[in-house]
Design brief:
By secondary structure, the protein is an alpha+beta fold. The protein is globular, with a radius of gyration of 23 Å. It folds into four domains: 11-17 and 95-187, Reverse transcriptase/Diguanylate cyclase domain (Alpha-Beta Plaits); 19-94, MutS, DNA mismatch repair protein, domain I, CATH 3.40.1170; 193-242, 5' to 3' exonuclease, C-terminal subdomain (DNA polymerase, domain 1); 259-361, Dna Ligase, domain 1 (2-Layer Sandwich), CATH 3.30.1490. Helix content is 37%, strand content 21%. The protein has 13 helices and twelve strands. The model has no long low-confidence stretch (mean pLDDT 91). A five-stranded mixed β-sheet has the order 5-6-1-7-8. α4 (94-111) packs across α5 (133-151), α10 packs across α11 (234-242) and α12 (273-293) crosses α13 (327-338).
Length: 373
């Protein structure tokens, strides 16, 4: 029997524009047009922690996600002294962002049968059912219009033959962009882009490549597979395929968080045991609350993160033999992991601690028996 022809893969990546900041600006009309940064409290330049996001007005000052909030404050102050509008720093309201995200994803699923949620503000859509890239483009325009009409927010969308190309394309014309890359256009589309545009290439790899005169995807494409493997190991082989636009088409249809967690950067670096233990218990409480709020009934792995005053960061974890939802068990495990950082075992130099974090992994939906408070 002759096999039916394979359906052409058409994948879209939908990415909400500066989502957290955009929600805040929409919900607070008095902020319209102002530069907004969402993240840790800057405390007049003495704050700790990082930005979660910045809107496009704030990005013109150099602010961006994951930037230390102290540096963001300095850049904002420099802009203010130049006569620019001052940056509005806001604390994240994740419950509100989750609510808005849920409505957007429901709207998308009304029009697209196969959707992979990649986070609160992004999703991959399998548009192969449309039959052509032109029809897929028209559907994406409809989705962007529907999101704007329902939520007053903009999204950027990339369309390509696989998830890799679609993700790169969605970032090509931000904000409120739509970029379609057909299979025959992939290599030409990627060639002039900076190597940092390839997902997975971070600052360290970028510097490594720049030192060898490799700045664009075209430059990187000229490097033999064997050389990339020698430089970067297995990641080099994967990179050889990525710069040629080769990526997965299949979507993961039941996206769920792989972990939930909380962390806190302290106003002052400290080794004061009573204070640190109280904050650790609070983080455990917050992490467990998030676990249950997101519909999970238990966890098996507890991960503790400790960041010292010199930014050296250490993680320790323990996996339980079975799942639990017990707050008492969580606190006991977290404390057992943490106590060595107060003495010679994990902190022989008695370095002050800057940040603590608690993360729960190996999450389960089925209700465990051990579920006391």
């Amino acid at each position: 029997m002759a096999q039916s022809p394979r359906v052409m893969a058409i994948i879209a990546h939908l990415d909400m524009d500066a989502f957290y900041a955009a929600v805040e600006e929409r919900d607070h009309p008095e902020l319209a047009g102002l530069p907004i940064a969402v993240g840790a409290d800057p405390r007049g330049g003495r704050g700790r922690g990082v930005l979660t996001t910045a809107n496009y007005a704030a990005r013109r000052y150099g602010l961006h996600s994951a930037m230390p909030v102290s540096r963001a404050w300095r850049l904002a102050e420099a802009a203010r002294r130049r006569g620019e509008p001052p940056v509005v720093f806001l604390t994240p309201n994740f419950r509100r962002y989750e609510e808005v995200s849920g409505r957007i994803m429901a709207l998308v699923r009304q029009r697209v049968p196969l959707v992979e949620e990649a986070g609160l503000d992004e999703a991959y859509l399998d548009l192969s059912f449309t039959g052509s890239f032109e029809a897929a483009r028209n559907l994406c325009l409809e989705l962007k219009d529907a999101i704007r009409h329902q939520e007053g927010l903009t999204a950027s969308v990339g369309v390509g033959p696989n998830k890799l190309v679609a993700k790169i394309a969605s970032d090509f014309r931000k904000p409120d962009g739509l970029t379609v890359v057909r299979p025959e256009e992939v290599e030409a589309f990627l060639a002039p882009l900076p190597v940092r545009k390839i997902p997975g290439i971070g600052l360290k790899t970028d510097r490594f490549l720049q030192a060898r005169g490799i700045r664009t995807v075209a430059d990187l494409r000229a490097v033999p597979r064997e050389t990339l493997k020698a430089w970067l190991g297995k990641w080099g082989e994967d990179l050889y395929d990525r710069v040629r636009g080769r990526g997965r088409e299949e979507l993961t249809l039941s996206w769920e968080p792989k972990s939930v967690g909380e962390q806190e950067t302290f106003p002052v670096d400290t080794l004061e045991a009573d204070f640190l233990c109280r904050r650790l218990w609070h983080l455990c409480h917050q992490a467990r609350r998030r676990l249950l709020a997101e519909g999970f009934q238990g966890f098996r792995t507890v991960v503790l993160t400790v960041r010292f005053h010199d930014f050296h960061t250490v993680s320790r974890s323990h996996t339980l033999p079975g799942p639990t939802a017990s707050g008492r068990r969580l606190r006991a495990e977290a404390m057992r992991l943490f106590l060595p950082f107060l003495d010679q075992r994990e902190n022989p130099q008695r370095k002050p601690i800057r940040l603590l974090g608690v993360r729960l992994e190996k999450l389960v939906k089925a209700a465990p028996g051990d579920s006391e408070k």
